[in-house]
Amino acid sequence: xxxxxxxxxxxxxxxxxxxGLVLLTALVLVAVIAFLFSFVSGVGAVVTIALExxxxxxxxxxxxxxxxxxxxxxxxxxxxxxxxxxAARRAQRDRLRAPQRVGEIIGICIGVIIFLFLxxxxxxxxxxxxxxxxxxxQFYFYAPLFTGMFLSFARAAHGRRNPVRxxxxxxDLFLAVxxxxxxxxxxxxxSRFGEMFPSPIQFIFGWLNNDIGHILLAxxxxxxxxxxxxxxxxxxxxxGQLRASKHTSQF
Length: 251
Known about the structure:
Mean pLDDT: 82
Strand order of the largest sheet: 1-2
Distance between the termini: 19 Å
Radius of gyration: 22 Å
Number of helices: 8
Largest sheet: 2 strands, antiparallel
Order of helices and strands: EHHHEHHHHH
């Protein structure tokens, strides 16, 4: 097995990871100190601000890891096992055919319809959205729809899957943050979810309640974290396979 390290990518990635860890440590210390002095007027808000700012070191850490992995490739006859075989098959199907590009565009159209449906119901005061569904909750609720549509457009425009996978990884991390934040704040009433639909089909959603809603959000966050790690590994493995095939074709 051959391993190639691109230090032009690995070193900046390491710097981003270190910066993320340092900033995370500083924010944790600020949050702990502010919590200990929460009896002082106005200090309690510092804890909330520090917790919200923790998204920044998380993003730095994620980008750093992706940059490091993108700078390391491996290929050759020494690669064996299920994952390498799966990566080889994915590398063969990396280029999107015309119907697959059309499928990505259809996915964007479906995303727009879902957004318009939800946003219209929010404007109409649907009971599914509670009074705590503020601007930050709206950001975490709607933003994943737009990031997903952007990635579909990128795949359709570029015609390749693997170059977009680092952004898929970041998107999965963002989805996990959004899901866990919504799980914590929970600005919904899932028992009223069916009221957004026509009355003849509202019974389909009668089984939903807030406990189910919490389970769905927890599952979404956990799955997104796992999928982020898988996407990152797949990107690096497929990248190595593509480089190996390109290297072989030159001889």
